[in-house]
Design brief:
220 residues; mainly alpha
C-alpha cells in the first residue's frame, strides 16, 4: 500500500507540472489534475489537499537538490574542473525531471511571488550561478557577456531536459550534447590576437590544458 501511495504522489507531481506548463499555475485546478490522472478528486485529495501542496512538494525536492549541489561546490577549489562538474551534476537533475520545476518558476513568476519555496529556489539558483561564473553574474554585475553565457548554459540543459522527457529514445545523448555546449559557454575558448597559436586541448572536465605559441611563418 505504501508503494502505491508513493507512486500516486509522484505521478500527481509530474502531471501537475505538465498542467502548470500548459495552463499556467493559476489556470490549473485540483480537479484538472485528478482528471488527467484518471482518478477521482477525492482520491487525489487523500494525497494532496490542494495544488499548493503539490507545488510545495515539487519545489521542496528541487530546492533540496540544488542546495546539495551548492554545498558540494563551495567545498571545491575554484576553476574549470569544478565549474564543469557543477554543470554535469545539474544536468543530472534536469535528466531526473526537475526541468519542469525550473520552467514553472520562470513562466509563473507573478503567480508565485508569495510562495516562500519559490523565493528559496530562486535564491539558490543565484548562488549556483555565482559558483559557476563569479558573484553577480546572474544580474549582469560582472559584465553582460558573462551573464549571457551562464544563462544560455543553463537554458541549454533545461531545453535538453524537456526534449529528453518527450523523446522515446536518445535522451542521454541529448543531455550529453547540452552539457558539452554548456561547458563551452561557461569556459569559452577565445582566440587571442597576435602570433598564430596551436589549437586548445580540452580535457574531460578541465579547460585548456596546454597552449603553445607558434611563431608565424617567416616570408623570404
Amino acid at each position: 500500500m505504501a508503494g502505491r501511495r508513493t507512486d500516486t504522489r509522484e505521478r500527481a507531481q509530474r502531471v501537475a507540472l505538465r498542467l502548470f506548463a500548459e495552463h499556467g499555475y493559476e489556470g490549473t485546478s485540483l480537479r484538472m489534475i485528478a482528471e488527467r490522472l484518471d482518478i477521482t478528486k477525492a482520491a487525489l485529495y487523500y494525497h494532496y489537499k490542494s495544488k499548493d501542496e503539490i507545488l510545495a512538494a515539487v519545489l521542496g525536492d528541487f530546492s533540496a537538490s540544488v542546495a546539495e549541489l551548492i554545498d558540494w561546490g563551495k567545498q571545491q577549489p575554484e576553476g574549470p574542473q569544478t565549474r564543469r562538474e557543477l554543470l554535469r551534476r545539474y544536468a543530472e537533475l534536469t535528466a531526473s525531471g526537475f526541468t519542469a520545476a525550473a520552467r514553472l518558476l520562470q513562466e509563473n513568476e507573478p503567480s508565485l511571488q508569495d510562495q516562500p519555496l519559490a523565493a528559496e529556489v530562486r535564491g539558490r539558483i543565484f548562488t549556483l550561478f555565482d559558483l559557476l561564473t563569479g558573484p553577480g553574474v546572474l544580474i549582469g554585475a560582472s559584465g553582460p557577456a558573462a551573464s549571457l553565457r551562464v544563462r544560455l548554459a543553463i537554458a541549454a540543459l533545461h531545453m535538453a531536459g524537456d526534449e529528453a522527457e518527450r523523446a522515446e529514445s536518445g535522451g542521454p545523448e541529448l543531455i550529453k550534447a547540452a552539457l558539452d555546449i554548456a561547458c563551452d559557454l561557461v569556459d569559452p575558448q577565445i582566440p587571442e590576437s597576435g602570433p598564430e597559436r596551436t589549437p586548445h586541448h580540452v580535457g574531460d572536465l578541465g579547460g585548456p590544458l596546454a597552449q603553445e605559441e607558434v611563431p608565424a611563418a617567416e616570408h623570404p
